[in-house]
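Example 3.2
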Amino acid sequence: MVNIIVSGINGRMGRAIEAMCKNSDKYTIVAGVDVNLGIPHEFPTVSDINELSCKADALIDFSHHSAANKLCEYAAKTNTPVIFCTTGYTDEELEIIRNTSEKVAVFRSGNMSLGINLLIELSKKAAEILEDFDIEVIEQHHNQKLDAPSGTALMIADGIKEVREDSNYVYDRTQVRRKRQANEIGIHSVRGGSIVGEHEVIFAGRNENVTLRHSALSREVFADGALKAAEFIAGKPAGMYNMSDVLENLF
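Structure, written as tokens:
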């Protein structure tokens, strides 16, 4: 059994993890942390992680990037592996996370879906093989999402850029009248309704197209990925880990 502390337990993702753990024989939540209390749980919940006295195999954070400093301090002090699942970290916060990984196991991913991370790996391979193909990334999310493009779309583009180092991201072509450049990666955002998350990578050649696509049908895919990450990182030595490590371990 993997014993887990969930930071952001009263948020949408925290509640999704709690629901998945409720009848699980692999994962159990031993404590929750949230700045907004008031929701009853079957385990202790606090607003400050330093109030906890229990020990866990992993700490999953789905709260806010500003919590990174305090969570890193707790992880290092208690030797608890920590999994950062949020986005929007500042450079200073990323440096704190990197420094913490020298003391304890740290896992960070902008998207906890196994399918999305597989899509990134497949996109990298396709970009390597289809070297003369143009690449466009299209992402779709619900109408309440604040950022555009999504962090996941940028993760996909960044993965491709590892293979095509001269890639240039283009977000808007309305201001420039010119032909598409060979090294462009077009990144496009759609916002509407209650779309959980759609990401599509188009490889367009002269006489054929190849499209890779991932659809998130519910937030459970992210909760499931976070739990798999917790299982993976429990007992690991200090270092920085990500979903590529989980995929490698699975396959």
